[in-house]
Amino acid sequence: MIGDWKPVIGLEIHAQLNTESKMFSNDSTAFGQGDNANISPVSLGLPGALPVVNKKAIENSIKTGLALNCKIRGTSVFARKNYFYPDLPKGYQISQFDKPLCEEGYVEFHINDQVKRVGITRAHMEEDAGKSTHHGDYSLINLNRAGVPLLEIVSEPEIETPAEAAEYARTVRQILRFLDVCDGNLEEGSLRCDCNVSVMKKDATEFGTKVEIKNINSFRFVEKAIDYEIKRQIEVIESGGEIMQETRLFDSTKNKTYSMRKKEQAHDYRYFPDPDLLPVQVSDEWVSEIKSTLPELPRDMAKRFQQDYGLPEYDASVLTQEKSLAQYFEQAAKESSNAKAASNWVMVELQRELNDKKIDIENSPISASRLAQLIQLIDKKVISGKIAKKVFAFMLEDDKNPEDIVKEKNLVQITDESALEKMVDEIIASNPGQVEQYKAGKTKLFGFFVGQAMKASKGQGNPEIINKLLKSKLG
Ligand code: ADP
Ligand code: MG
What we know:
Elements: E1 5-16, H1 41-44, H2 55-67, E2 71-72, E3 75-76, E4 78-82, E5 92-96, E6 102-111, E7 114-127, E8 131-135, E9 138-142, E10 149-155, H3 162-179, E11 191-201, E12 211-216, H4 219-238, E13 246-251, E14 256-262, E15 272-273, E16 280-281, H5 284-292, H6 298-309, H7 313-319, H8 323-336, H9 339-357, H10 368-379, H11 385-397, H12 402-408, H13 417-430, H14 432-439, H15 446-456, H16 463-474
Helix pairs in contact: 3-4, 6-7, 8-9, 8-10, 10-11, 13-15, 13-16, 15-16
Bound molecules: adenosine-5'-diphosphate (ADP) and magnesium ion.
């Protein structure tokens, strides 16, 4: 709510399905091939070329529909969406219109400590268009992308803030990646997000006129673009103007949206069922079969991590952002028998390293087993937590197991009480001022003594023994 204004937001997410061949032909979908390398008469829209449906694309769409809690239609229909554009050689895009494959679902996610549910109106299949690039006085068209299968996931206008919109989009991406049906790569355009935004007075009964912001390529920009758009619309209306139904684009350097085309120029698509394609018949058996192969989904996995490993909700949600990260954590947790330690190491030390060096968890220089071994060395008190960080740093450099590193570098924890007592005595003797203050009641100084003792032991003193010795000696 901004003053007495309420934003209304709905998202249309286009997900490129990662099938090997295109939606209606056996052309490859491989990214980064030479210009117009992945084409055939079907992709080129040559007269007489006939489309044939890719079963895998339908299967992946059903999978996604089920994961988004949708109903799957027994009979869905491909329709022609007619418009002219140079990168659309047929003069129409094959899409679905009044009979989409998936409808009436929902997605849930956490935001501000609450569960937010956003309805999914529909998820329909369509083919992608090609790509034009403009070079001064001429343009080039690459049709490698023409005909690549897309699933368009349309939300209900139930999103209420820019942050919710971004979180909704992140959740959809996370589900697509868990299902392994779309790589979710926003930069390469495998996932594209159109944001519909309007504002209404909080007691109004009808929605305001919406504006569509197209092709935003990061979730941060989703948030920024919508935020800007809400403020712009309120300002226009409050200064006596009117919102025009239009398509806008987001300029991420200026943090502003600007008009691309107004409604007057909007298309009349003249949808009709594609006469070259039969309706898609999906049997209940097939749907049940696909349902039985669905992997564990992120929210279920996060709940299981909380229950089985006693993780806080925060840890569980961070660790289930990516399936590979969750699998890494789970292996480390099982093998170390210390889930919370595994969670901390993965979320803090490991993630920081991987982020810094831009390495995927799959290629982590430290395997989950070795991380588990490191945690066990701490739990068995062979090394302290502090030394473990040193060992961790060596493990990043060297493909060796932590036990060997501890031996080689002589990092075993000092648990010999008499050796530690000698150090503690020396520290007390050489800091008479602090001892006096401590005894006079400045108990905060205890940390200072612990620090000194750890330093004297080169970080290898057992902290519990040091604590115990200091307590008894300082009184
Ligand atoms: P269109 O026919 O213009 O494509 P749709 O009704 O299909 O519009 O809706 C497209 C998207 O816009 C959906 O995600 C929907 O939730 C959202 N939407 C619809 N009406 C509004 C509105 N008044 N304000 C914001 N979003 C809206
Ligand atoms: Mg639409």
